[in-house]
Amino acid sequence: MEWLHLLVRHWAYALTVLLILIGLHGMLLKRNLLKKLIGMNIFQGAIILFFIVHAYKDGASVPIWSKALGEHAERYMNPVPHGLMLTAIVVSVATTGVALALLSLIHKRYGTLEEDELLTALRADREEV
Amino acid sequence: MTLESPVQIAFLAAGGVAHESARLVPNASDLPALILVPLIVGVFLVPLLGLLRRRLAYVTTLLILATYAALALTGLRTVLDGSAIHYRMAGWTPPLGIELALDPLSAFVMVTIAVIGLLVTIYAGAAVRRETPEREVAFFALMVVMLLGLSGMVMTADLFNLYVFFEVSSLSGYALMAVGHRKAVVSAYRYLLLGTIGASFYLLGVGFLYVLTGSLNMADVAARLGDLAGNPALSVSLVFMVLGLGLKMALFPLHIWLPDAYTYASSTSTAIIAPVMTKVSAYVLIRMLYFVYGADWSLSELGVGPVVAWLAMGGVVWGSVMALAQQDAKRMLAYSSVAQVGYIGLGLATGHPLALTGAILHILNHAMMKSTLFLVTGSVELSGGSRRLGDWKGLGRRMPLTFVGFTLAALAMVGIPPTSGFFSKWYLALGLADSGQWALLVLLILSGLLTAGYFFRVLERVYAREPREGAVQPAGEATAAMNLPVIALGAGTLLLGLFNAWFVGRVIAQALPAGLNLPGVS
User: Fold this and answer.
1) What residues in B contact A128, CB-CB < 8 Å?
2) How far is C-alpha A4 from the geometric centre of its chain's CA atoms?
3) Residue A67 falls within a domain, yes or no?
4) A26-60 residue pLDDT tens
5) Is B97 helix (H, G, I), strand (E, B) or coil?
6) ipTM confidence score
7) A48 interfacial to chain B (CB closer than 8 Å)
8) Is B171 in contact with A95 (Cβ distance < 8 A)?
């Protein structure tokens, strides 16, 4: 029963693992290119959550200096992961943007985002080589 | 602090001022930031001037990359005594602030990126106009962004900063990869998905390291890891890092994105991405294994070394066999890239100083060889020829200069002395023999035969056969601007081979991590 205890105590981490698996499943096994992108977003979101969960402390305050809490670092949340993840969110948005641009080009050229239909279209496309 | 001069403002743009005593004239200790400044300026300047007049984008890129290359070479010369220059961004001390570090290893990889970038730009000036008409400005702008991202990855000493530069280079790389053949968008999209998994795995690895040590500065993390050996979380972080970086460097069997992406992208994009992108990921892997985790723990104790070494060897054999089976020149070169990256992986996983020397030398070697070969396929296509190897018969007489470069690079790929390709494999073989890895050594030598197989097959067609009836033939020799980089890179592989002893003793020996020393070199 120890693992159950561990799971209950660290349920937030278990959730990120679950989200990572859902995301990877979407990216690798879904047959629609847009669903793959959604999987990618879930996957990246899970990693962002992983950092944020780590920064959380029970009963701690926001990382803004206040007189009442003084200079006890343990009474504040860790601001570094939040800062890092802001950047990671920007990166993830940019990646999504590039991916959507590629998807719209794929749709314009081949008229589909379904992998099976796309493979047929690619095989039929004998431009150049 | 007030801003007094344009120099200072330019420095602020690079995050450079705010030292305790802001200097107006930068000196050698500012080199890590200074090397990046031309690229940062270029990211804005190239599209802006390109809007004014399209041709200006090319000229600006050329000037910017020339400055960058000159600074990178100065950087390499400054640290060749084995020292390192540490630069604190905006004056914040590490581990809180972000640190840039120029040591012999990063300076060496930086010079590789700069030289390849500069030579490919010379070629691109003539090629991009015809390959992707109307899109020159975007092409050059994206190329500068990508080179900035790669240089940042090489220069930074901060784990998270590395991730950001990683994505900067990747995103511009995906866009460059999507240009070219109609199918390129699909292969670029697949590359984007897998590349994002790779980068995210790297980020997860960083997350575990941060949880364990509370620090993101590489040197600081390395110092704090000492007491943590045996902690399972540390092993997990290493596994994520190796998986993520392995995906980006196309380590077998994580190479599946590579053949399609390289085949369908435009030749100029491939010629700039193929030589540097996977190599920089290999560099980061060396950085992590040897400088952050420590080779003794990561390679030997945890057993990552043998796993990566055998996978890399699998890549060498698989890539070579697949290359042998290809009829399309670019696809053959793409599979050959899988094989050549395998050599680098093999060298860095063995943990022997000689093998690591081979791996580091092969980063430069393979960058030069592969860039030459992809540029030649581009030249053939742009002069009206085809990528089908069957149509390459008799090309040696039709495009003699172009194929001098191709031949030199192909000989270096096969590893014929005195080309440089021979020496990187020689060091690899010495390292494997010295560490008693006989099975890998035998496979290494056999794989050389496979490489000889697929390159001599091409050379024989190019020089010894008459053109086939009705074959698609190029009109004639490529332009001088396209031939210059090809010949320069081909000659580079020869020169690097001839002056190999000097180069390895002077440069690579300094780049090895502390504790690993070449026999005979102090």
Assistant:
1) 181, 387
2) 26
3) yes
4) 998 989 999 999 999 999 999 999 998 888 888 88
5) coil
6) 0.92
7) no
8) yes
Put simply, the answer to whether B175 touches A98 (Cβ < 8 Å) is: yes
Shortest Cα distance, chain A CAs vs residue B95, angstroms: 12
Cβ-defined contact of B178 to A102 (cutoff 8 Å): yes
- A109 located within any domain: yes
CATH number, domain containing residue A87: 1.10.287.3510
Q: Would an 8 Å CB–CB cutoff place A42 in contact with chain B?
A: no
CB-based contact (8 Å) between A124 and chain B?
no
Could you tell me if residue A16 is inside a domain? yes
Q: Which two tokens stand for residue B25?
A: 């004239």
Answer yes or no: are the C-beta atoms of B254 and B247 closer than 8 Å. yes
Model confidence pLDDT, tens digit, residues B75-115: 898 888 888 888 888 888 888 888 898 989 999 999 999 99
The domain in which residue A67 lies consists of: 2-124
Q: B415: Cβ–Cβ under 8 A, 6 or more apart, which residues?
A: B421, B422, B425, B426, B448, B451
User: Is A81 touching B (CB cutoff 8 A)?
Assistant: yes
DSSP B302-351: S-HHHHHHHHHHHHHHHHHHHHHH--BHHHHHHHHHHHHHHHHHHHHHH-
For the entire predicted model, the pTM comes to 0.90
Nearest to B41 by CA among B70, B61, B27: B61
